[in-house]
Structures are given as structure tokens and as C-alpha cells.
Amino acid sequence: MLEQRIQQHFIDSADLKYQAAQALSKPIAAGVQALLACVTSGGKVLACGNGGSAADAQHFSAEFVGRFERERPELAAVALTVDTSILTAIANDYDWNRVFSKQVRALGQAGDVLLAMSTSGNSANVLAAIEAAHEREMTVIALTGRGGGKIGALLRETDVHICVPHDRTARIQEVHLLTLHCLCDGVDAQLLGDQETP
Ligand SMILES: O=C(CO)[C@@H](O)[C@H](O)[C@H](O)[C@H](O)COP(=O)(O)O
Ligand SMILES: [Zn+2]
């Protein structure tokens, strides 16, 4: 029955979030430190991903540049998923796999962060973006699932890997969104103090 099916989604999502709280609090805290190091030295975050993860890249950038829950100075972030002229030109003239990496090479500087999201860990354009970020001496914060896939193998020790312990894309995305909010909250808490949220 439909209502049962819906309730099962809520239960499965909540179960995974309980499990992931244990597994992910350490790498998420490392992600907060990487973001802080970036923004306090004048750096910016470039965010990318496909489909739901493209929406997540934009969601994160909106909260970084605008605000999360508390008033604070603007923080620099750009979602690499929004400029349809850039995206279509690169896809048309080169290859869809290069839509993010060419933007990373154009905009990325040492000390910036690439926030790379892929539930499978295998999207070729996200992998290429990570390679470009390494070329630019940027730190990568990767949000993945399913064991991390090829992204897990590509990351360096100085990068941060937040790998959701699940195989289903929707469930992984639900934890990615929570992770993004933890990252924003963590940065705010470090910048402004840990006062209670409204
Ligand atoms: O949102 C969803 C599924 O929940 C889809 O749009 C999903 O993001 C797309 O299939 C993506 O292309 C999947 O890419 P990835 O997460 O494996 O990198
Ligand atoms: Zn979705």
C-alpha cells in the first residue's frame, strides 16, 4: 500500500542518518576545517555534481554566499552547474565530461576548495574536476556513496572524503543534503561561536 511505502522511505532515511552520524561526523568535521582554512585565507569554494547533486551544489553555494541560519559575512562559493552557455559550449565543442574541469581550471586557485558530489563516486565529469583541482593545488571535499567508487581512489591524503555507507542514490543524496547543512553550520559555529541556532 502506498502509505506504507512512503513510511518505509522515512524509516530507511532515518535509519541511515542514525548510522551515518557515527560514521561521518569525523570526516564532516575535517570538511569544516578545510572550508574554514579556505575562507579565512581569502579562498572560494567551487561546487559540482550531476542531477540531484547539481541541485545540491547550488543549494550549498546559496547558503555560503547568502546565509545559512545566522547572519555573517558573505562567503565565496560558485556552483559550476548554472551557466548554461558555459555548459553547452564545453559539452558541444569538447565533451560533457569536461564541463566542470574546464571551469575549475579557469577559476580555481591554490587554496580554493572543490566540493565534488557523486553518489556513485564514478561520474566522469566529477572525476575530471577533481583532477583539475589537484592541478590547481586545491583541496577536494568529496561527497560520495557506494564505497566511494573511482573518486575514492583518486583522492589525496590532504582531501576530505565523506562517503555515505549506502548503495541507493536517493538515500545517499538525503545524507549529502544533511552533510551540506552540517558543513555550513560548522563553518558558522567556528566563525561566530557556538551559540544556539534560532
Ligand atoms: O537525483 C537523482 C536521483 O535521486 C538523479 O538526478 C541523479 O542525481 C542523476 O542520475 C545523476 O546523474 C547521478 O550521478 P552520480 O550521483 O552517480 O554522480
Ligand atoms: Zn533525486
UniProtKB/TrEMBL annotation:
Transmembrane segments: none annotated. GO terms for biological process: carbohydrate derivative metabolic process; carbohydrate metabolic process. Its cofactor is Zn(2+). Residues 35-197 form the SIS domain. SUPFAM superfamilies: SIS domain (SSF53697). Binds 1 zinc ion per subunit. One of its GO terms (cellular component) is cytoplasm. Keywords: Carbohydrate metabolism, Cytoplasm, Isomerase, Metal-binding, Zinc. GO terms for molecular function: carbohydrate derivative binding; D-sedoheptulose 7-phosphate isomerase activity; zinc ion binding. It is found in: Cytoplasm. It catalyses: 2 D-sedoheptulose 7-phosphate = D-glycero-alpha-D-manno-heptose 7-phosphate + D-glycero-beta-D-manno-heptose 7-phosphate. Zn(2+) binds at H59, E63, Q173, H181. Pathway: Carbohydrate biosynthesis; D-glycero-D-manno-heptose 7-phosphate biosynthesis; D-glycero-alpha-D-manno-heptose 7-phosphate and D-glycero-beta-D-manno-heptose 7-phosphate from sedoheptulose 7-phosphate: step 1/1. Its main location: cytoplasm. Substrate binds at N50, G51, G52, E63, N92, D93, S118, T119, S120, S123, Q173. Its EC number is 5.3.1.28. Homotetramer. The reaction produces a racemic mixture of D-glycero-alpha-D-manno-heptose 7-phosphate and D-glycero-beta-D-manno-heptose 7-phosphate. Belongs to the SIS family. GmhA subfamily. NCBIfam families: PRK13936.1 (NF010546). Catalyzes the isomerization of sedoheptulose 7-phosphate in D-glycero-D-manno-heptose 7-phosphate. This is Phosphoheptose isomerase. It comes from Ramlibacter algicola. The lineage of its organism: Bacteria, Pseudomonadati, Pseudomonadota, Betaproteobacteria, Burkholderiales.
